[in-house]
């Protein structure tokens, strides 16, 4: 599981499945079905225009462009390579897409490299670019004009650090590797807090920062003899100008002082532009046994994505897939992320959920595995979602169709670009190679 903070969050190599879904309720099967037993959603493999419905009532019209190829691998690539794409805007006309070119494990954390391509016509054509073009980098735009993005450092060897005593251990599901836990407050200074890149307003050179995280119950970990500093998830500027981050992996001590070995989501708040962060709220792992018979054995909630909706509601979507199918859950907060509703399962699988609220009020949700799915919410509260649009034929929609990871970029009040990977693309010689693709999507509510 290669986790890269805020930029792209690579995947775990696990067989997962998708449930057809048009409400907040999923089938409570004793055993989660395999992907090939689940009816597919609406086919949208090429240029598509269709009417979306909820409970038989039309709610929106959606138009998807033909996929545009950003780049194609020149040779067969293994897992972790030529996948996990991310799209960012450099300026009004220039876009940049980058993707992973490294192994999907802890040894790759913080290491530079990867592929990239630039478009200077808003995504119509692309050319390879080893480095991003000149201009403001991605990251969160702060009220004072600074831009802030997480910088993941390389994982350090346990033997090279003055480590505290472990307070517990667990076994990583997909690798069988032992994970050791430590109180965050007892960790070496260089393994505490979070690292950022900050581009000060009006400047052209970003500076590195080591920010403080104030959380008395926070727990860190080591894996494969390495100690990472992970801060993966999403940040938003709140209505009061503070910054809220919804972060994983967030291990913790329970209120009784015992170790919770399941991954949860921690929400942290900064009132000084990202230099000091204080615990704001949590979503600890809670599973629905009727929705997921394997819930007790899962790692926990991973790959959270949250959005601040127009009415002030915080909506968070959570992944649980690790080994085998795992549902996505949703939770909401009405007090800026301090307290959260009990998470509810609403699909039978999904990795790296991506959320985007358009200016026309529509909320977009993308996820993957098998293939890639696209859903919409038109009530503005994130409860009921349309039937998924499918980017790949279910005849081939297994783990080898796509990494399932997507990235979204708003381009207008009713439209956005979506980038994803295609593992079954055929090049001009008819050879199957991984490809990165982008599509424009327009959605108009009724």
Shape summary? globular
The number of E-state strands comes to: 32
Oligomer class:
single chain
* Main sheet overview: 11 strands, mixed
Number of domains: 1
Tally of alpha and pi helices = 0
Structural class by helix and strand composition: mainly beta
Rg (C-alpha, Å) = 21 Å
Please bin the fraction of helical residues: under 10%
The unreliable regions are 1-36
**CATH top level assignment:** Mainly Beta
Strand content: 35-45%
CATH architecture: 6 Propeller
- Average pLDDT, all residues: 88
Describe what this molecule looks like in 3D.
The chain has 446 residues and is mainly beta. It has one domain (35-445): Neuraminidase (6 Propeller). 0% of the residues lie in helices and 44% in strands. It contains no helices and 32 strands. The strands form six sheets. Strands 9, 10, 12, 13, 14, 15, 16, 18, 19, 20 and 21 form an eleven-stranded mixed β-sheet that branches. Strand 9 and strand 10 form a beta hairpin. 46% of the residues are buried. The model is unreliable at 1-36 (pLDDT under 50).
């Amino acid at each position: 599981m290669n986790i890269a903070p805020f930029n792209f969050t690579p995947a775990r190599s696990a067989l997962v499945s998708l449930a057809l879904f048009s409400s907040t309720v999923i089938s409570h099967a004793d055993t989660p079905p395999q992907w090939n037993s689940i009816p597919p959603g609406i086919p949208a493999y090429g240029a598509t225009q269709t009417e979306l419905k909820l409970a038989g009532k039309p709610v929106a019209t959606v138009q998807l462009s033909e996929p545009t190829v950003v780049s194609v691998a020149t040779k067969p690539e293994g897992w972790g390579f030529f996948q996990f794409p991310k799209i960012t805007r450099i300026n009004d006309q220039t876009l940049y897409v980058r993707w992973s070119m490294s192994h999907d494990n802890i040894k790759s954390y913080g290491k530079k490299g990867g592929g990239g391509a630039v478009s200077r016509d808003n995504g119509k054509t692309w050319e390879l670019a080893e480095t991003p073009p000149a201009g403001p980098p991605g990251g969160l735009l702060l009220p004072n004009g600074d831009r802030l993005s997480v910088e993941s450092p390389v994982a350090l060897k346990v033997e090279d650090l003055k480590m505290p005593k472990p307070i517990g251990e667990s076994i990583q599901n997909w690798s069988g590797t032992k994970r050791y836990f430590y109180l965050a407050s007892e960790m070496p200074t260089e393994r505490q807090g979070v690292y950022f890149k900050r581009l000060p307003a009006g400047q052209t050179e970003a500076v590195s920062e080591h920010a403080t995280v104030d959380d008395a119950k926070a727990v860190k970990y080591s894996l494969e003899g390495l100690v990472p500093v992970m801060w993966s998830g999403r940040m938003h500027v709140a209505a009061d100008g503070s910054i809220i981050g919804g972060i994983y992996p967030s291990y913790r001590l329970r209120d009784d002082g015992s170790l919770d070995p399941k991954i949860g989501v921690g929400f942290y708040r900064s009132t000084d532009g990202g230099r000091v962060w204080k615990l704001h709220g949590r979503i600890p792992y809670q599973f629905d046994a009727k929705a997921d018979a394997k819930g007790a054995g899962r790692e926990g909630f991973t790959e959270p994505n949250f959005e601040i909706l127009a009415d002030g509601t915080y909506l968070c979507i959570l992944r649980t897939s690790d080994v085998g199918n795992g549902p996505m859950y949703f939770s909401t907060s009405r007090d800026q992320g301090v307290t959260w509703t009990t998470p509810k399962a609403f699909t039978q699988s999904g990795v790296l959920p991506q959320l985007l609220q358009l200016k026309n009020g529509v909320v977009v949700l993308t996820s993957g595995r098998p293939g890639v799915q696209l859903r919409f919410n038109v009530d503005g509260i994130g409860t009921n979602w349309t039937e998924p649009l499918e980017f790949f034929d279910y005849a081939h929609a297994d783990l080898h169709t796509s990494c399932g990871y997507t990235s979204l970029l708003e381009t207008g009040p009713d439209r956005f670009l979506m980038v994803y990977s295609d593992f079954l693309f055929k090049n001009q010689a008819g050879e199957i190679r991984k490809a990165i693709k982008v599509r424009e999507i327009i959605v108009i509510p009724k």
